Amino acid sequence: MNKVITISRQYGSGGREIGAKLAEKLNIPYYDNELITRAARESGFAESVFENAEKKATNSLLYSIAMGMSSYGSQELGFSNLSLDDRIYIAQSNVIRKVAEEGPCVIIGRCADYVLKDMKNVVHFFIHASLPFRIERAVSIDGVEPSRAEDIIGKNDKRRANYYNYHSGEKWGVATNYHLSIDSSYLGIDHAVDCICTFLKELEK
Q1: DSSP letter at 204?
Q2: pLDDT per residue as tens digits for the range 15-53
């Protein structure tokens, strides 16, 4: 398997678990929070700054205003004139490109599908699931209070969508941005991993 794999996911869909199991099964590196650690080390920013970047994107309009000019509009003014969040995004994107260039791996979230959209040998997956499935996982795995689970799921999805939409100019979760979308509540976590492996094997033929 000589592919770089990106996995975008709805909150509670098990996308992170699917990515970890896939990387283990294929015996290739897995990057999730490791990207933050590496980006922090190479950029000089604190890890907490990277961790908070996506969490700020609670409202698409307010987020855009708070960010100031987009990275595209302000690049001509120089890196120092970008907002802090834009600089964080660029630093993280540089690390994503580096790990992808190092060889096959699994990369979770962080707009990796968009960052690597022009790179060859990259396959993009989106993991989604039914609300009951996501609520059950949020409660049992993340320790979310059952009464708050649906609200937390909605807020996390909104943050991810706003962050992705702002930085990519694309729409998060739209099927045309990915090579395959998988319903983990229909297949189950392990069968979702098997489905991806089968898909990758077919690509190698």
Answers
A1: H
A2: 999 999 999 999 999 998 777 777 777 777 767 777 676
Residue 172 dihedral angles phi and psi, to the nearest 5°: -60, 135
Which phi and psi angles does 61 have, rounded to 5°? -70, -50
Strand 30-31 to 105-108 pairing = parallel
* pLDDT given at position 80: 52
CA distance 158 to 32: 20
Instruction: Give the SS3 label for residue 147.
Output: helix
Q: What is the pTM of this model?
A: 0.84
- Six-digit token pair at 89? 């995004």
Q: Where are the alpha helices (DSSP H) in 6-148?
A: 15-26, 33-43, 47-53, 60-67, 71-74, 84-102, 112-115, 131-140
Give the separation between CA 200 and CA 205, rounded to whole angstroms.
9
> How far, in Å, CA of 57 to CA of 98, rounded?
26
